[in-house]
Design a protein that fits this description.
Elements (H helix, E strand, L loop, with lengths): L4 H20 L3 H21 L3 H25 L9 H19 L5 H13 L2 H8 L6
Helix pairs in contact: 1-2, 1-4, 2-3, 3-5, 4-5, 5-6
Length: 138
């Protein structure tokens, strides 16, 4: 990732802050509010220092927020087919921690974003079906 160490540090610090606050939040609405800060911070950083990897990260974080938030809305409407339990949110926060560590150590973001993509897909009917068949999406 070709951004300054200052911007990297801002991104890393924010991802870790969000993950920690999400771990301590008991309410799903609060967890989602906090998670929205991850793609928001990524957006702010690439407005100052453009990098194509930041666009990739932003796109998947924003997609994750939309898909998860949609599933939360469906659950609240009474459809309990696909539930998002504490393990799901634990995995989501772990992905943020892993993303921060990956950026900090100048490693490839690809594997982390594959996990995030699988987590996003879990929120869909077919994604949930695949996990029922024993396929680990993330």
């Amino acid at each position: 990732m070709e951004i300054s160490s200052e911007m990297k540090e801002k991104l890393i610090t924010e991802y870790r802050f969000i993950a920690e606050k999400m771990r301590n939040a008991e309410d799903t609405t609060l967890k989602m509010y906090l998670f929205s800060g991850a793609y928001g911070m990524t957006y702010r950083v690439f407005n100052f220092e453009y990098d194509s990897e930041l666009i990739f990260i932003h796109h998947l974080l924003q997609s994750a927020f939309g898909a998860i938030n949609n599933r939360v809305t469906v659950i609240r409407s009474g459809d309990r087919t696909i539930l998002l339990d504490d393990d799901f949110f634990r995995d989501l926060t772990s992905i943020l921690d892993d993303l921060a560590n990956t950026i900090e150590n100048d490693l490839s973001i690809y594997e982390i974003l594959l996990k995030l993509s699988g987590l996003i897909y879990y929120t869909t009917g077919n994604g949930h079906y695949l996990t029922l068949k024993g396929i680990n999406l993330f």
